[in-house]
Structure formats: C-alpha cells, structure tokens
Design goal:
Blueprint (H helix, E strand, L loop, with lengths): L1 E2 L18 H4 L10 H8 L3 E3 L2 E3 L1 H10 L11 H23 L6 H13 L9 H24 L7 H10 L5 E2 L2 E9 L2 H13 L5 H8 L10 E6 L5 H7 L11 E3 L2 E11 L2 E2 L2 H31 L2 E3 L12 H4 L3 E2 L1
Length: 333
C-alpha cells in the first residue's frame, strides 16, 4: 500500500470552503453508460470513504461538474489529482454531516429545486438521472448546513481585531485618485469644436444639457455621465487627459476610433489613506474567510484520522500526483 500524495493545486483554488454545489448538480445527468459491462465497470469501487464506496460513475459526475474550476488542462494528472482530493474531502464532510444527523429543511430543498427548474432543468421523471440529481442536491445542502451551523458557527471577528489588522497593514488601505467623469462624443472635429464653444460661453455649466442634445455616446440620456474611475480603469489616452483636469473643467478635444470626445470632471478625490470605518467590513470578511479556511483544514485533518480513506489507483484513468490524501491518511493499492 502506498500513501496518496497532495495535489499541487493551491488551497485558494480548491473551493471546498464554500462548496458551491449547484453548478455541479447541473451536470449530473450527463454521464451515461451504453451497456451492462460498462455499467459494471462504472460501479466497481475506486474510492472508499468510511464504509461508503464510490465507482467511476461517481468520479466522472464529480469531475465533469467541476471542469470550469480548473485553470489549465482539465485532463492533466495534476488537475485530476486535485479533483480527486476535493471529491474525498467532500465525502468526509458529508459523512460528518450524516453522523450529526443534519438534514436540510423542506423549505430549503424546495427553494433549491425552484432555482434548478428556473435554470431549465426539469425533474420528477423518476429516472436514474433525476435520482442522482436529488441525491446530489440533498448531500450538497447537508454539507453546507454542517459548515454554516456547526463548523463556522462560532467564528467571528471583533472590531478590535479589525483595528489591529488595519494598523498592521496600512498599505492595503490607500485609495487611488478617483474622478467622476462626463463625456460628449461628436462624430466630427468641427462638431466637437462647435460644442466646445457653447461650453466656454456658459462656463461649462451646460455640459449635461449639451450631452443630451449632441452626444453620440450611449451615455447621452444621462447627460454624458460615465461614472467614477481610478487610475488604470480608462484607456491610456483618456486617462492622461482626464486625471490632469481639475474639477469643473473640460478637456481638449480627444480623438479616438469612436469619434471626438470632450470630458468634464464632475468631481475628483485625491489618493488618500482610507479610514477604518471605510474598510472595516472588508477587513472583517477577509479575516473571517481566513479563519474558515483554517477551521476547515483542521476539521478535514481530524476526519481523515478517524475515517478510513481508500483509493484503488489501478482503476484510475490518470496517475495520482498529489500528497493531500496521504497527509489525510489515505491509502491506495
């Protein structure tokens, strides 16, 4: 027996923490088998977590449902090893939820079925696909409820902790220059110059009105209001002009592939150190997420020491190249 190894996929890419299962469920119906021999092969045990066995069909459903989470080749040994790790980890969490007799309430199940139906998936035909779908939905909600109601229940971040983080990482909370911009887009330079003259005669106070009358941009009905931008948000040729302007001033005529632009700076907020009250919720969410990840990793380590994990590597269609399962106590033959 060899130890199974850890996936090289970074923890932040594993997505086990939030277990967003609905997209995965939408793929459950796509893994069929054409004949009895293929079905027997699909049902043969490849993974066992505790007393529960899983075959190739189970792995294929899981793998197919999560291909969009992968960066790079979805068929590489590294990618499939990472998916196998995640499969086993979810089954560990499911087993723990079952031990605690966690059951989603009927209202939650009904709401999820409505969302699935709204996505164009019809259930209720009593087919194997529908049964797999229903089972997957129930298991997904069980795990999510276990995480929310048990594992993460007492995790919190105080205002004092947010303040300490804020003081220790001041560079993270520096706001860049921000400008509120309006524009008028003209089809020709002559028309842009005409609008420019009308603006000068009224000290730019009629910019919104002229934008509604003359601008060819989609923002014309909103008086040319483009919204707010930080450095790096606009094309370079626009950024150089816009960020050099003072509030209430209009730019020179700027030519682009779309036509001839005039920009007005409605408001300008210079780069500044953000106050704690501006960023406290962002800090709280960041710290809470980190604590959830730590709690989840710790729980998975405990569960893997308590629950037998077995993988028949000879039946895998790829070479397992990770170490996460070995670290969690997994074995293979």
């Amino acid at each position: 027996m060899d130890g199974l190894g850890e996936s090289a996929m970074p923890p932040v890419q594993r997505h086990v923490l939030f277990l967003v299962f609905l997209p995965a469920l939408l793929c459950f119906g796509g893994c069929g088998f054409r004949n009895r021999a293929a079905q027997q092969q699909a049902d043969a045990t490849i993974v066992r977590v505790g007393e529960t066995s899983y075959g190739m069909a189970d792995l294929e459903r899981f793998f197919n449902s999560r291909l969009n989470e992968l960066h790079g080749s979805a068929t590489s040994d590294e990618a499939k090893s990472a998916l196998l790790d995640s499969f086993v980890e979810e089954k560990l969490l499911l087993l723990r939820a079952e031990q605690l007799q966690i059951k989603p309430d009927d209202k939650t199940l009904a709401l999820m079925r409505e969302k699935i139906s709204a996505g164009g998936i019809e259930l209720g035909n009593d087919s194997e696909r529908d049964r797999n779908f229903e089972r997957g939905l129930l298991e997904s909600l069980m795990i999510q409820q276990y995480l929310h109601d048990v594992l993460f229940k007492d995790l919190s971040v105080t205002t004092e902790e947010c303040e300490s983080y804020y003081k220790a990482h001041p560079d993270e909370f520096v706001s860049d220059d921000v400008v509120h911009v309006r524009e008028i887009l003209a089809e020709s330079e002559a028309e842009a110059k005409k609008i420019q003259s009308l603006l000068k005669s009224n000290r730019n106070r009629n910019f919104s009105e002229l934008a509604r009358l003359y601008s060819k941009a989609p923002t014309a009905e909103e008086g040319g209001d483009l919204g707010t931008f930080q450095r790096g948000d606009l094309p370079q040729e626009f950024e150089k002009v816009v960020f050099a302007l003072a509030p209430g001033t209009v730019s020179k005529i700027v030519r682009s592939q779309y036509g001839y632009h005039l920009f007005l700076i409605e408001e300008k907020i210079l780069a500044h150190q953000q106050k704690l009250y501006e960023v406290e919720e962002r800090i709280r969410e960041k710290m809470k997420l980190e604590r959830q990840r730590a709690a989840l990793d710790k729980e998975l380590a405990v569960l893997a020491n308590q629950i037998t994990i077995f993988v028949d590597r000879e039946k895998l269609d790829f070479s397992y190249v990770g170490t996460r399962l070995a670290a969690r106590g997994g074995t293979s033959q």
